[in-house]
Each structure stands twice: as C-alpha cells, then as structure tokens.
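Help! Submission page says 'invalid entity' but I think these are all valid:
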Amino acid sequence: MKNKQIKKAITGGFAVGEAIRQINPDVMAVYPITPQTPIVEYFAQEVADGNAYTEIIPVESEHSAMSACIGSAAAGARSMTASSSQGIMYMMEMLPIASAMRLPIVMAVSTRAISGPLNIHGDHSDAMAMRDFGWIQLFAESVQEAYDNLIIGTKLAEKALLPVAPNMDGFITSHSVENVEIMTDQAVKEFVGEYQPTQTLFDFNEPKTFGAIALPESYFNFRKQVYDAMQEAESKFLEIVSDFEKISGRKYDLVESYQLDDAEKVIVAMGSTCGTIKATVDKLRGRGQKVGLLKIRLFRPWPVEAVYQALKDVEQVFVLDKNLSFGTSQVLAGNVEIALKRPINSVVYGLGGREISEEEVEKIFTGEVRSFLI
Amino acid sequence: MQNHFEEQKFTPTTTCAGCPIGIVTRTVLNATEDPVVVTNATGCMEVTTTVYPNTSWKVPYIHSAFANAGATVSGIETAKKALLKKGKISEDNLKIVAFAGDGGTYDIGLQALSGALERGHDFLFVCYDNGAYMNTGGQRSGGTPYASTTETTPAGKKSIGKIAGRKNIMDIVVGHKIPYAATANIGFLNDFEAKVKKAFSIKGPKFLLVFSPCVLVWKISTSVTIDVAKLATETNFWPLYEVENSQYKISYNPKQKVSVEEFLQTQGRFKHIFKRPDGTDIIAKIQQETDAEWDRLSRLAQG
C-alpha cells in the first residue's frame, strides 16, 4: 500500500541528506568536498538537532572516510559516507577493499569532474573511475530519484553484501531545487529494516580475521566471489524496486525506456541530461520523428540483457558519455556495444560541467555532432 | 569468554627467526583481560600473521591497507559507541588496538593517526619501530636513524647512508595533547607490559612507540635481538619515558653510561660508518644528538 508522502521543494543534496537521516545509520564519516558538501552539512545539522542518532566521524580525509567506514561496517555498524571527484580519487585505494570484504557501505556521490585542471562542476569522471571496483552504482535523473536511490541502495547493499554508490549529478541535481515526495520516517525505516550483519569484528566467541593476505591459490577466488555477487545484484535490485513501488508508488527498473517502442534513433545516457533528452524527444516526436531515450539507472552491475532488449531493433544508437577515456572507446559506449554486439555512435559531452541544450541533443540525433560535443 | 592463556590470543607466525613481532603482540594482548579488537596496518606483522586460510590472531582482527590504521580504529571505536547505544553489543570494556610499523606511523600512516588522536577516540596505537620498511626489504622511513644504510639510502663512496635523522614521532604525538604516550622496548618487557596496562586503564587515545629490532635488515644474528634492543636503551639511543597528560617521566635511567658507538657496532646497517675516514665525526654527531635528546627529556621530566 502506498504510504503517505510529503511534498517538499528541496535540493538533491538536502534530499539525500534527508534520506540518510530517515535511514538513521549507525555511523557516518563526513568530510567536505564540493558538490557533495550539502549532504554532510544537512545531515550533521540533523544529528546536532537530535533528529538522527548516528555517530558522526569527522574524518581528516576521504581516505580515512572510507577506511573508517570499512572499520565500522566490519564491526557490524550500518555505515555511510558521501563524496565527489578528488575525494573519490583520494579514497580510491579503499574502494575495492570495501567490496572484497563484502561490506555494505553506502557512499552518496555528487558526481564531479576530476583534476586536472581543477574543476568543481559536474560530469561523470569520478563515478566512471570507480566502475571496476565492485561497487554497485546507481544514477539519478532528478532529485526524486537521488532520494529514492539512496533508500533503494541501502537495502541493495545489505542484500547483495556489496558497497553501493548512488550517484546524482553534481550541481545540476545536488544544488537544484525540485519538488520531491518524501516518505514518512516510519515507511523508510520499515523498508530498509534493521541491519543484520552475518559476520562481525565484534564476535568475541568466534573471533575472525578480516583482510588476510591471499596468495595466488586463494586471491583469484576472493575476486571471483565479488564478481558473482555483482552478477546476482541485478535480480536483487529488481526485487527491491518492486517492493519500493508498493510503498512509494514510483516504479523503477534497471533502465528506463522513453519512447522506444517504434524508435529508429535512440540516445543512451545517464543522469540529469536524460531530462533534456526527454524534452528533445517530445519535441522531435511532435514533428513525427521516431526518436527515443534509453536511460541507464543501474550502471553496475551492467544490465546487459535489458540494454539489448531495449535496443535490439533500433537502427541508430547514440551513446552519451559524460566522461572521457583516453586512447580507447568511451565507457558507456563500450558497455552498450558489448550488449548489442554492433557498432554504435559515441558522443562525449558535458565535461567539467559544460551545458548541453535541446538543440545540441537534436544535433546528436541528426548526426551533426559526432564524437565530441565540444 | 576470553581465554587468557597467551597461546589462545596469539599463536606462532611466519616471521623471520629472531623477529620480535610476536613479543610485541603478546605483550600487548596479554596485558588485559577485557575483550580486544585489533587493527593492523600493512606490514611485516600483517603478512606474517594472516596468510589465508591461517591466522595467528585469536582475537578479532582487521587489516585493510597501509596508511589507515588510525582511520580504521576510528571506525571500529565509533561502531562500538553506536552499537553500545543500541544495545547490540554489551562489551563496554572493549579495548581497541592498532598496530603499525614505523612506515605506517611516521610516514604514510601519519595523517590518519593524527586525525584519530585529534578526534579523541578511545584506542591504543602501538608502533613497532624497526626503523625502516622491512616488509619490502629495508627502505628508509621517517623513523630510520641518521647514517643507517638502507635499500633507498645505501651507503657508498659518496653516501653515508641516510642523511636526515629520525623524525621525533613522540613529539608529534604528544603535540596532540593525548592522555598517554610512552616509548617502550622489547628488551625491557616489564616496563613494556606496565605501560600497556597503564594505557589500557586510561580513556582516550594512547600511543606506544616500541623499539623492535629487525634481524634481516639490521644485519644482526637471530640470537641477539634482545641484546641489541637492550643496548639501545642502555646507550640512551632509545630512551624509555612516558608522557601522561603532558607530564614527562623517565622510565629507566641507565646505571652506567655506555657510548652509542657500542650500540652502532652491533649492527650491519651501521658497519660502513666504521670504515669511513669521516666515521669518527659521524659517531660523534650521533653521540651528541643522543646526549642532547636525553638532556632535553631529563629537563622535561624535571618539569
């Protein structure tokens, strides 16, 4: 049954902070970095005002943020942090360790360009840099999705025993005010449930060693376990979003198909740009053009079958990457190609927060813009 | 229930013969009857005690990386607070210990250690200081003494070995105004044990800097680990002292003044000094700095 919800006009940062407050994790490691900072500021104030019981660790760096989360999660505490860009680059060493230890840490990400040169604006370079580290990654188009993904992601982390990064676009989503439906605290609490770790450091009857050194005869097996867990995460995600729909009325899938039924030309994208693309699709559809959008919600694990099914009959596929890989094909483009087993059109856009307009989206559909929207 | 027989807390390791790592771990773990959780920076202690599927640790243990013993301990201690509050655990007497070598303390681990000390978590940080990166074969660290030859500061025709002296990590730690910091030595076990016990009796961040020879890189015989360690303190090369709430106290006054040269002579890492024409000057400099530090500590202890 759909629960009562409150409509609020808030930014993505505050919406994610509010979701964290409602989840009320045991431990939250906080460290500032633009454009993530509003999340931890909002949350710290909520704790200061007695609206969450979380123990905050005001760490001295992001490397320590993730290290502290690993320590607290291994001890059996529901643990979270939030970061962006250089922060993620700085903690990068710890990211594959978190997944290899099968710790369900949640890190809210406001995506941002990576240096150099220094740039604080939004693109997906930071999220793409952590794509192979065993983290489940969700992308949000709107503030509503950023809020929902944080709640869905927390449950998914604990079901899959993998860390989860719910991503929202830095500034565009994190700092923009949108109307959001906020669920009741009780509904969120019941949905995520109480964290029940299976193995913890605080087991004094059967003490365990976490983070042993693994030689060639065992290392591969540990990594394979993460791979298998990631493969299984897709069906767990589907179960969770199905339950989520029942309480929120909002229906989510691995991908979102927008005007795909008879589409001949389709753009594949992630994040806030999907809103601009939808508006363009509506405009072009109005002129009788058969165009559509495939929005990726779950990026890791990569929903290869869902992408294939959505695009198999589409003549022309344009994949938008908000990230630049050097000396090779682009990340999202390469992933779509793997799903389709045929060439697609790859376009890199929006690096360092460069805006994309409906006119430019139109030029991608017509083929006027190729490779780089620069 | 905890079993307090030492064999139950820490069992043999794959360390080199003569390595005192087991002395450090057992002395610390056996100093309390309360439950203990251990975190460990990457290094010799970690790789010689946790080769999967074996473990030497009979207490809960976690290692994740090199730079982050201070941060991991912060996470564990904060989880303890959160879970006690929720009634999910009942061990409010739980002791949390971080072990790191000098690399994981003086160098790559310094930032995380500083953060943990400044935030005031309740834990004991134990640095087993062997004065170089031994797990990778003996490269210089911020804890390597002046004129020691290492893999990255090798002595040669144009090199005396390490040019810089040891970073005074105790001063850095004491600068955080923590309730308790002390030096210890595996050659002075009673003193070491008493300091661990005292540390465990105090709430807040505690730091122990333990002199811990490395037979392999110091090029000493496997039978003389303890002798060399004792000589370090007898020559004032490694003074034993504690700093409790900013009050300094010398723990051990050598009865006879032994020259630092006698300590240097015992180890292959200083052998080149004795063959160099400027060797006398180098030894004089080490002696002078050793005396100056002892005088400084004595003055601080007198208040």
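Support: the input was valid. A stray whitespace character was the problem, and the output above is from the cleaned input. The beta strands of chain B are 36-40, 61-62, 95-101, 123-129, 155-156, 159-160, 180-185, 205-211, 241-244, 247-250.
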